[in-house]
């Protein structure tokens, strides 16, 4: 069998002093620390046999992907399927656990955690992300590819790959800033799922303690 690895890279830290749930909103770029994280990832994995670097169209993902694409002398690709999940609370200083149950206008969006009712259904996220993974595997067979996306899409893809339920506590996601979730295939068959933090030494303590982002807040 031919061994192929598709890495899902979460973007680095975003400049967001007001704590806005930015989701798919334009204009949210990496902080200075986030830029260092992107460079660190390129330093740590830039010598691997990576033949494609593809990113979500959002600025923070494009910025995270650029140093690695440069080191590998690759043209950076863009794939809409890697975009952040949709969320009705986009643009607001809001996250689950921050008093949402005390906000009556929000209640109508929170009735079904299985969907979830406040945003893009988990199954839809999983479907588009997995399609992007399979396309990357086929296009880079025998090599490695890096897909730069966002925390929730990466985590949902991992749950799908491991045959786990989509409903989960966001605080338990193993998907910190600039982390890699690595899917290893033998031929067309997924054989293992790995996780690593090539920029782990740059992760702020607050993000290690509270390792979650509800639709893009960090």
Automatic annotation (TrEMBL):
Annotated Gene Ontology cellular component terms: cytoplasm
One example GO MF annotation: phosphatase activity
InterPro entries per UniProt: His_Pase_superF_clade-1, His_PPase_superfam, PGM_Phosphatase
Protein name as annotated: Histidine phosphatase family protein
Organism for this UniProt entry: Nocardioides mangrovicus
């Amino acid at each position: 069998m031919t061994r192929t690895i598709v890495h899902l890279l979460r973007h680095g830290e975003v400049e967001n002093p007001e704590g806005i749930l930015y989701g798919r909103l334009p204009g949210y770029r990496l902080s200075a620390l986030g830029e260092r994280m992107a460079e660190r990832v390129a330093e740590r994995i830039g010598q691997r046999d990576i033949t494609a670097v593809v990113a979500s169209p959002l600025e923070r993902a494009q910025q995270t992907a650029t140093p690695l694409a440069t080191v590998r002398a690759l043209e950076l690709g863009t794939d809409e399927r890697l975009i952040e999940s949709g969320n009705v609370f986009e643009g607001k200083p809001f996250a689950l656990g921050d008093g949402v149950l005390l906000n009556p206008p929000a209640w109508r969006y929170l009735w079904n955690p299985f969907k979830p009712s406040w945003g893009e259904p988990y199954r839809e996220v999983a479907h588009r992300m997995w399609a992007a993974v399979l396309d990357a595997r086929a296009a880079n067979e025998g090599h490695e590819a890096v897909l730069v996306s966002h925390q929730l899409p990466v985590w949902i893809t991992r749950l799908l790959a491991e045959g786990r339920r989509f409903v989960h506590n966001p605080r338990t996601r193993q998907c910190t800033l600039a982390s890699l979730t690595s899917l290893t295939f033998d031929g067309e068959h997924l054989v293992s799922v790995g996780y690593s933090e090539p920029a782990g030494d740059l992760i702020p303590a607050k993000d290690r303690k509270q390792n979650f982002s509800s639709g893009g807040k960090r």
